[in-house]
Amino acid sequence: MTELKNDRFLRALMRQPVDRTPLWIMRQAGRYLPEYRATRAKAGNFLNLCKNPELCCEVTLQPIDRFDLDAAILFSDILTVPDAMGLGLGFHEGEGPRFANPVRTAADIDKLPIPDPEGELRYVMDAVRTIREGLDGRVPLIGFSGSPWTLAAYMVEGEGSRDFSKAKGMMFDRPELMEKLLDKLVQSVAAYLNGQIAAGAQAVMLFDTWGGLLSPRDYLRFSLEPMRRVIAQLKRENEGRKVPVMMFTKGGGQWLEAMADSGADALGLDWTTDIGEARRRVGDRVALQGNMDPNVLYASPERIREEVASILSAYGHGHGHVFNLGHGIHPGINPEHVAALVQAVRELSPAYHAPA
What we know:
This protein is an alpha/beta fold. It has 15 helices and eleven strands. Strands 1-4-5-8-9-10-11 form a seven-stranded parallel β-sheet. α14 links the parallel β10 and β11. α4 packs parallel to α7 and α8 crosses α10. The two termini are 37 Å apart.
């Protein structure tokens, strides 16, 4: 087992003291980097890239090599699990993901298998192992999955959508059918994340991209409760140290108190929630991750630094903060602006961790 040289990120997730606020960026291995675009071209298309462990390792390490980040995140897609269930995932230029075999009936749900992480999803586990070897202990590796609700929304809709009317239609008209689908996804996601942990992921994250589309009542039932059940099944220790769990619901700021009781170690925030107010609401129950608007990175380095200072000040002194964007980085961002973000966090955050 390679000794971890920088565990600042893991310590922050556990609300332990650190010398500065750790930083990573959602979608940090992505199209804004010219080296990523070159590797993706070499792969031929996005799915080929996702299914090639060596190329996944290459793109995962690119932002770590370029920026002084405190964590790497597995390069993959949130829809690998439904693809492994036989839905036939494809990506169409300008249209996003689409399934050849959407799930619409009880019979469709009955025939869905629970994918074996070392079987149908072996390429992801191999990518985790390859990345851990490539990182050589520089920083921790984050594994992830889409949340059961988010995966169900895509599986029923068959593609991306603004309102996911087919998925919400099933939820309202046949709630027992939606819960049957979610039950299978809870089992599948838990097995998938445990597979990643066994393969070497040192923290894991649930991305609930579409939970914010739901009413408070429906969020608690169809999104948060399935995530709670996933977290309850996760292996929380590996290689002699705790494996923290992060939960991120885009648009979920109104449910922070309920989310803090989910069993997760940290909650991700988008930019619509004030991080200082969020800290007051959850206390020391969980760490907080976030939450700069990704569009700030289109601004000047000076303005980026001001925004970093504002977020650090809003969170205040003490532990339990992982700096991140409020959602994934945009493809059109200048990498030099990301470097300015990293530099600002490194220079401004130590003051918030100094002894009083």
